[in-house]
Write a structure and sequence with these properties.
Layout: H1 11-34, H2 36-41, H3 43-53, E1 69-71, E2 76-77, E3 86-89, E4 95-99, E5 106-110, E6 116-120, E7 132-133, E8 139-144, E9 151-156, E10 163-167, E11 177-180, E12 186-192, E13 196-201, E14 206-210, E15 221-226, E16 233-237, E17 240-244, E18 251-256, E19 264-267, E20 273-277, E21 285-290, E22 296-301, E23 311-314, E24 320-325, E25 328-333, E26 339-344, E27 349-354, E28 360-365, E29 369-374
Parallel strand pairs: 1-26
Antiparallel strand pairs: 2-29, 3-4, 4-5, 5-6, 7-8, 8-9, 9-10, 11-12, 12-13, 13-14, 15-16, 16-17, 17-18, 19-20, 20-21, 21-22, 23-24, 24-25, 25-26, 27-28, 28-29
Length: 378
């Protein structure tokens, strides 16, 4: 089994480790080749042993590989083979919403059949970032009122496409995202006022404003997610992960472990841990933190030397992380970095979402494909 957890190390130390791993891989291949002839000589004895036992010997796991590995067929594939960049579970976990973010319709996928249950056309002036699903099951998007310099938040019915609008009394260009608290009473507008985050209530009144970190550039705020209990807002503001009290805007913890901007944030279902990810080529790991303390508990080095993981998710209690890279998804045990399962998808998965039952993760990605991934239990 392979271990993916690493402690923080200088860049030069990492490069040496990478070189050593390459040499070790080459040595394994040479050794394997040298053993081929011995394997063929032993073939008759092994076959006889299998006949005696009445069954073929079980193959041993490949050294350095995951405990289980399989090829996973898509649950669904959209007629329009677009790159799906976002997947969100609807309440109840029987359906998911998938979205390409390129003015394509939002598709609602039935997980029992893999069929498209409905499609919703997004508003013409919505932002370019991920959709959100409210506790009431509405699709939430932010953007601008057509022909006016005013921001607006749309609440769309996933079955009918009917829209409810919350028109705001200002214009700050909600171009990054809108996060909704579990009770639906607090909204976090991301990317407002040149990279800030604005917390408002359901009526549009301001609660608090969180400024971007000093020295960061315009539009550094890209993503924000409420914890399952609604007591914490996790925000990616450039390379900073900020854990915020949504009732007051107080920044409880501020950590910066990236060079590039954080692109994804995912909580464990119990809200105790939070994972971050960036697709920046300068940052080749996903990180996991304790929400209460802000301390980093694990780092998952990328499978590639030139790019990071595409997406990250956590299981119910945050003991395992799911990470995707072309063309696979891995389940990693965070206590020791062991890869407990790996699924070959045949395409890149750009977003991952844990279903409410905690037993499956849904992946969405290239060619309009959606996969259902079982959570391995140990």
């Amino acid at each position: 089994m392979s271990s993916l957890i690493s402690s923080p190390a200088p860049a030069r130390a990492r490069s040496r480790v990478t070189t050593l791993r390459s040499l070790m891989t080459a040595l394994v291949l040479v050794t394997a080749g040298a053993c081929d002839s011995k394997s063929s000589d032993d073939g008759g004895d092994k076959a006889a042993k299998a006949d005696e036992d009445g069954a073929k010997p079980k193959p041993k796991p490949k050294p350095g590989g995951p405990a289980t590995s399989d090829k996973l067929e898509p649950l669904a594939q959209l007629e329009r083979k677009v790159r799906l960049m976002d997947v969100e579970a609807l309440p109840g976990g029987e359906q998911v919403a998938v979205y390409s973010m390129h003015r394509e319709p939002i598709s609602i996928i039935d997980l029992a059949s893999g069929a498209v249950a409905s499609t919703v056309d997004p508003p013409a002036r919505h932002g370019e970032r991920p959709l959100e699903i409210s506790a009431a099951g509405k699709i939430v998007l932010g953007g601008e009122v057509e022909g006016k310099e005013q921001d607006v938040v749309w609440f769309l019915d996933p079955k009918t496409g009917a829209s409810e609008e919350l028109v705001l009394a200002f214009n700050g260009a909600i171009k990054a995202a809108v996060a909704v608290s579990p009770d639906g009473q607090t909204l976090a507008l991301v990317g407002i006022d040149n990279g800030r985050i604005l917390l408002i209530n359901r009526e549009g009144a301001e609660i608090a404003k969180i400024d971007r970190p000093e020295g960061s550039g315009v539009m550094d705020a890209q993503v924000a997610v409420f914890s399952p209990d609604g007591q914490t807002l996790a925000a990616g503001m450039g390379p900073h992960l900020r854990l915020i009290d949504p009732a007051t805007g107080e920044i409880r913890h501020d950590v910066a472990d990236y060079e590039g901007s954080i692109a994804q944030i995912a909580f464990s279902a119990d809200g105790a841990r939070v994972a971050t990810n960036t697709t920046s080529s300068r940052d080749l790991a996903s990180h996991v933190y304790e929400v209460a303390s802000g301390n980093k508990v694990a780092s998952i080095p990328a499978a590639s030397k030139i790019s990071g993981w595409l997406a990250v998710a956590l299981d119910k209690d945050g003991s395992h992380a799911f990470v995707s890279a072309m063309p696979r998804v891995r389940q990693v045990r965070l206590s020791d970095g062991e890869v407990v399962a790996e699924h070959q998808l045949g395409a890149a998965a750009w977003d991952l979402a844990l279903l409410p039952d905690g037993e499956h993760v849904v992946a969405a990605g290239d060619m309009g494909r959606v996969w259902m991934i079982p959570v391995a239990r140990e």
